[in-house]
Amino acid sequence: MIVVTRLDGRQFALNPDLIERIFESPDTTVVMADGANYIVTESMADIIEKIARFRARIISMAHNYSDDAEEQHSPPKLSIIHTPGNPSTKG
Fold this sequence. Notes:
This protein has 91 residues and is of the alpha+beta class. The chain has one domain. The chain has two helices and five strands, in the order βββββαα. Strands 3-4-5 form a three-stranded antiparallel sheet, with no helix packed on it. Strands 1-2 form a two-stranded antiparallel sheet. The longest helix is centred in the middle third of the chain and has 21 residues, at 44-64.
């Protein structure tokens, strides 16, 4: 989630994956996939930067996730099994 500010100073969080459009004219308006519109104090560039930082943080968290923790807390990983006679297997 990213935190943005309403014109009255109240902050709230938006799911950046549901943002459809952002435009400035002159206030910044965020249009969500469900059609909701939010007018915020942040500039379009600021919101885009917040989204980029949010996504970078998610990727970083996934990259730093310990394999040991994964093995202890998640079901076994699935793998592709090649059966005899499958044209995609060799030999």
